[in-house]
Specification:
Blueprint (H helix, E strand, L loop, with lengths): L10 H4 L7 E2 L5 H11 L4 E2 L2 E2 L1 E3 L2 E3 L3 E2 L2 E2 L6 E2 L3 E2 L2 H18 L4 H17 L1 H12 L3 H25 L4 E2 L4 E5 L4 H14 L4 E4 L6 H13 L4 E4 L3 H8 L7 E6 L1 H14 L2 E6 L4 E4 L5 H10 L13 E5 L3 H13 L8 E2 L17 H16 L3 E5 L20 E4 L6 H4 L6 E7 L2 H8 L5 E7 L3 H7 L5 E6 L19 E4 L4 H6 L1 E2 L8 E3 L2 E3 L2
Parallel strand pairs: 11-12, 11-14, 12-13, 14-15, 16-17, 16-22, 17-21, 20-21, 22-23
Antiparallel strand pairs: 1-18, 2-3, 4-5, 6-9, 7-8, 10-25, 15-24, 19-20, 24-26, 26-27
Helix pairs in contact: 2-5, 3-9, 4-6, 4-8, 5-6, 5-8, 6-7, 11-12
EC number: 1.2.1.5
Keywords: Oxidoreductase
Protein name: Aldehyde dehydrogenase PuuC
Length: about 525
């Protein structure tokens, strides 16, 4: 006679010790490093990555020590150039640009397509490097690589119509991007810019992604794509990568403080620019009742520990709906899984499906933990505080870069968590009683990239959504940066310069009619697509 399996509540199961986790065989940093050396030996020397400029790899720069956020172990650090070397790299890129802009479009398409084939061949290695260098869970790391490849393939198919009556810029495009999406944002942008006829320059993010970007650029360079990849401090390299007269366009993705300095520089020079900056993306709840549909969406907002420009760290909730909101929200935040992205119980097990791994470094985790404690000491109410004991970790591993999910009600106005994007798994909730309060709270950061409003009535949404200062506003669902022909930009201080996405990305890095006004936020005008 068959026995009934024990339920999860059965003490015979609940008292059973959790299995001891191990690192999945074949996924160590050394495995990834050695595979990278085997694929692109020209781009690495001994234990360091090289700088790429003038179509050649150079052992210049001063490598800095670096550690993986996953477990604090050493990884390859950026070989930082000084200002003079960066200027040489920019001038070499201008020479490449002048030659590349004369290459027929059919040949450019062929070279970019060959690059995409090479990236596809090494997809899993690129994803593994993202896990170690910036702490992405395996599934999200693969998605970052795939979005870059699939997105650029779409442009290869569509580029002919986009370039009618348009020409490349006078000089190369300089890319300065944050560390969180090396492939689907930075490499994607670089390959589309090159497809449009420009040489491309990128500065490696200081906080992570060096080896992944180096490998991707090595594969592109082999196919004749005119890419430059250099490392260095923003202050040291900014005169070359932003202010150099050789630069045709500056493309920046990062925080508002650095973005404001770049915006000032390019405005003074009248230089073409695309500056994507942070904003406090908010989700409003107003006259809403479909709570079962909300819970799975709320958990999804914790992907990659909210370390992305379109994360939702602020919920603005109608006070009379607060109890129902909590009943939907708390199960979502309690179900979030985090920990070591490569830890398994058995060598044959697949890699774990986690919502997030570490933050980008231990300093960021400490900063957010300190801000949380400070906000609580000033009156914020902790509604949920996860524990590292709930994480998915190897025995005795370094967990200093990990922060459990946290939720605070009513952070005080004196706290940075009240008005700024935390860029980590810390949610803040604000209660409101009127539509005016709802809109004021949703617009607290003077402009955002995305927002969402959950309300049952379409007419109410149609009336309130245009008053929310975000480039994209979802109705009861999150919005994202988007792929292929979906446009992207920001309102207020979250964006400066040309909008991108679809045809607008190509228009931003090419020249059209002399009287053309690009959609975007510029010092003398704002134009929506």
């Amino acid at each position: 006679m068959a026995t009934t399996p024990a339920s999860p509540a059965d003490p015979a199961r609940s008292d059973r010790p959790a299995p001891t986790l191990i690192l999945k065989p074949g996924t160590s940093w050394q495995d990834a490093w050695q595979r990278s050396l085997a694929v692109a030996p020209e781009a690495f020397r001994d234990d360091q990555a090289l700088n790429l400029w003038g179509a050649a790899w150079h052992p210049d720069g001063h490598p800095l020590p670096a550690t993986s956020p996953v477990d604090g172990s050493p990884v390859a650090g950026p070989p930082r150039l000084d200002a003079d070397a960066a200027l040489h790299a920019v001038r070499a890129s201008l020479d490449q640009h002048r030659a590349w802009r004369q290459v027929p479009l059919a040949e450019r398409k062929a070279r970019i397509s060959a690059t995409l084939d090479a990236l596809t061949e090494h997809r899993e290695l690129l994803a593994l490097l993202l896990v170690w260098e910036i702490g992405k869970p395996w599934k999200l790391a693969q998605a970052d690589v795939d979005r870059a490849i699939d997105g650029v393939r779409w442009y290869v198919d569509e580029i002919d119509r986009m370039l009618v009556d348009r020409t490349p810029l006078p000089g190369p495009v300089s890319n300065i991007a944050s560390w969180n999406y090396p492939m689907s944002v930075l490499i994607h942008a670089m390959l589309v810019q090159a497809l449009a006829g420009n040489a491309v320059i990128a500065k490696t993010p200081t906080d992570g992604g060096l080896v992944c970007l180096t490998l991707a650029c090595a594969l592109a360079t082999r196919e004749g794509v005119p890419a430059t990849l250099v490392s260095g401090s923003g202050k040291e390299l900014s005169p070359s990568l932003v202010r150099s007269p050789e630069i045709g366009c500056v493309s920046f993705v990062g925080g508002r403080d650095t973005g404001a300095r770049v915006a000032t520089a390019v405005a003074d020079l009248g230089k073409r620019h695309v500056l994507e900056q942070e904003g406090l993306n908010t989700w409003g709840i107003w006259n809403f009742t479909d709570w079962p549909a909300l819970t799975p969406l709320l958990r999804k907002t914790f992907d990659y520990a909210k370390q992305r420009c379109t994360a939702y760290p602020r919920f603005v909730v109608q006070r009379e709906a607060f109890a129902d909101f909590l009943a939907a929200y708390l199960p979502a935040v309690r179900s979030v899984r985090f920990g070591h992205p490569l830890a398994v119980a058995d060598p044959a097990d697949p890699l774990p499906e986690l919502d997030f791994g570490p933050l980008i470094n231990a300093a960021k985790a400490k900063e957010l933990a300190d801000l949380t404690n400070e906000a609580i000491s000033r009156g914020a109410v902790p509604l949920h505080r996860g524990s590292l004991a709930d994480g998915h970790f190897l025995p005795s591993q370094d967990t200093s870069a990990y922060l459990p999910p946290t939720t605070l009600l009513a952070p005080p106005p004196s706290s940075p968590l009240h008005h700024a994007e935390p860029f980590g798994p810390v949610d803040t909730l604000v209660l409101v009683d009127t539509e005016a309060e709802l809109l004021a709270a949703m617009n607290a950061s003077n402009g955002a990239l995305v927002a969402s409003l959950s309300c049952d009535d379409q007419e109410t949404y149609d009336r309130l959504a245009p008053q929310i200062r975000a480039f994209k506003v979802g109705h009861g669902k999150p919005r994202s940066r988007g792929d292929r022909d979906e446009l992207f930009g920001g309102f207020g201080n979250s964006w400066s310069g040309a909008f991108v996405g679809g045809e607008l990305l190509v228009r931003a890095v090419t020249e059209g009619p002399e009287s053309e006004r690009l959609p975007g936020n510029f010092p003398d005008y704002h134009l929506m697509p």
